[in-house]
Design brief:
Elements: E1 9-10, E2 23-27, H1 45-48, H2 67-72, H3 77-80, H4 85-94, H5 100-113, H6 117-122, E3 124-128, H7 146-158, E4 164-168, H8 172-179, H9 201-204, E5 207-212, E6 215-222, E7 228-229, E8 234-235, H10 242-250
Parallel strand pairs: 2-3, 2-4, 4-6
Antiparallel strand pairs: 1-3, 5-6, 7-8
Length: about 260
């Protein structure tokens, strides 16, 4: 079984990168909305989203809800089907359709780099960690398997070892740490702090150096764009300035997309 089920989005200018750095953004998971609550139940829902089987591959072309994928990939939909979900979601978002997480991510990145959202997505790659459909909006922390780890490794090779991996979701910190087993935080946390002591990566755990198959990857682990601070009812993707500090550490503010 091929470990990569959801083909990653790879922008046409990904290899040119941002400031010469190839950037891969790793999201969490896809979920299937066709549980019947809105009158659009898929006959394969329980099997395709089984958290025990963790395998949607058998239903990739049998799903009854492939119209959106067909709109963007008419020549591949009948052979690849649901494997094109990630790429379709990005294309749909760039066409103006609603995607809350992509919207928050894009607003932050376009402001930080002072570029248009289309330009941003052209210069990055994007994929999700979990390689099967979850039945709801739960996170990957309780559902990932060795297949997902293998998929991540293979995706990194497909992307020719990106220079920076931006991982969305602080819960992913625990999973990433397992890829580089150590009880010492200084072994995988990058030593980075502000002069005034306001930001300290040993406490904030934003920047990690992860060794995967004898290659060291620089990882920025942010909150997920859809994370909500329920006590205040506001999104805190930027973490009140922390994300800016660590993004500035990795990228020059004078952005070059040549």
């Amino acid at each position: 079984m091929n470990s990569i089920f959801f083909e990653p989005w790879i922008g046409d200018l990904y290899k040119k990168g941002i400031n010469g750095k190839k950037v891969f953004i790793l999201g969490d998971s896809h979920y299937c909305p066709h549980d019947g609550n809105n009158g659009d139940e898929c006959e394969f829902f329980c099997l395709c989203t089984s958290v025990d089987e963790k395998n949607s591959s058998n239903y990739k072309t049998r799903c009854n809800f492939l119209d959106n994928i067909k709109d963007y990939y008419p020549d591949e939909v009948y052979s690849k089907g649901l494997s094109l979900t990630t790429k379709t979601e990005v294309k749909s978002f760039l066409d103006g359709n609603i995607n809350r997480s992509f919207n928050i991510l894009s607003k932050y990145m376009t402001k930080f780099f002072n570029i248009e959202k289309e330009t941003f997505w052209e210069h990055i790659a994007f994929g999700n960690f979990i390689q099967f459909f979850l039945p709801n909006h739960k996170t990957s922390k309780d559902f990932y398997s060795q297949r997902d780890i293998d998929s991540l490794k293979n995706t990194l090779l497909l992307l020719e070892k990106p220079d920076i991996i931006i991982v969305l979701g602080k819960h992913m910190n625990y999973i990433l740490s397992e890829l580089y087993p150590s009880n010492k935080k200084e072994d995988f946390l990058i030593n980075c702090k502000s002069e005034d002591g306001k930001y300290d990566n040993y406490n904030d755990k934003y920047l990690l150096s992860i060794n995967i198959d004898n290659h060291s990857y620089t990882v920025l682990n942010s909150y997920h764009p859809a994370y909500e601070n329920n006590s205040r009812g506001k999104y805190k993707f930027d973490d009140y300035g922390k994300l800016d500090f660590y993004m500035n550490y990795l990228f020059s503010k004078e952005v070059s997309l040549r």
